[in-house]
Amino acid sequence: MSLPPPAPTSVPALVSVLVPAYNEEANVERAYAAITRVFEALPGFALEIIFTDNHSTDATYERLAAIAADDPRVKIIRFARNFGYHRSVLFAYQAATGACAIQVDCDLQDPPALIPQMLALWQQGHQVVYGVRRSLPDGALTRTARRMFYRLISLMSDDDLPLDAGEFRLVDRQVLDELRKVEDTSPYVRGLISAMGFSQVGFLYDRQDRIAGSSKFPFRRMVSMALDGLLNHSLVPLRLASGIALTVGTLTFLLLCAYLVGRLVFGQDWPAGFATTTLLLLLSITLNAMCFGILGEYVGRIFMQAKRRPLPIVERMVNFDRPARPASPPATGAPQPAERLHAVPEPAGGGASRGNSRG
Fold first, then answer.
1. Digit-coded pLDDT (tens) for 281-291
2. Residues 201 and 278 placed together within one structural domain of the fold
3. How far apart are CA 257 and CA 262, in angstroms?
4. Does residue 102 share a domain with residue 247?
5. Do residues 332 and 245 share a domain?
6. For residue 298, what are the domain limits?
7. Which of 9, 198, 221, 263 is the most exposed place for a label (fewest CB within 10 A)?
8. Burial category of 307 from C-beta neighbours within 10 Å (exposed 0-12, middle 13-18, buried 19 and up)
9. What is the pTM of this model?
10. 213-229 in b/e burial notation, b at 16+ Cβ within 10 A?
């Protein structure tokens, strides 16, 4: 979708493109090239790219630093360890300085070529523009599990969560300002933004297959993310545990009444059944363990939130003291430092935004 040319006197709107990366040495240069190529055709918009490196163990950071040395529009936040996908994404949103921010995965499964379409919808007055996955390149089992999860969480949540919407989205400055107030140790960002309200609109697109590298979301991590999404946006598991306890308690009381009536009124002499007693005892223990487990998940999140740790911790920040303008050739002999350590405007969580010059 082509955008109308800006008025000659208009100031280009700054767009922050957020790219989370973990062990993506094969993709960071390709992602940078794809994003900058899109914005070359958008003269009405200025660009800053914020890469969040979740403490990659390959050459991801080194390649990003080389890119940032040549282009001041590229900013890097490297965390002191891997703090998880959603924590790093939330930190990137809180660090964005643009009039809007667009999240794009480093593997380019969400095509940057659709950014003009997102900006056009944003210019129509929508504060959130999100991509709805019409097709997925995953296997049949993973694809079915994803779609079932979206429908399950939508059914159980009090929030209006769009179906089949992933991380590919644009959010307005007004939403970014609200995200800066968030202090959550286990955030589920897509649900967090959806629950904020504002004017939100989706568009259909086909998710691409990964070109290089391997997926950083094995089944175990997808289950963990699904659990975060479910517990962050629904009290149904707690209510389900209470309902099961009430149902089992009611059935136990009725069986006790039936036993007493049969024994005292009708004189039934029922033999003591060891197997029946054992099964009932094991069922009771299982139900108690399940209910305590659900309760423990919520209590554990309360505990982590109450500790108020400065998460995530930043190890290095690059180019945050340089303006996000197109790179110009340096003067002869002018030094081009590989990194500039400077704190972004402090996100929620206090010390989480302070740079660390180690290494």
1. 767 776 776 77
2. no
3. 9
4. no
5. no
6. 236-307
7. 9
8. exposed
9. 0.66
10. beebeeeeeeeebbebb
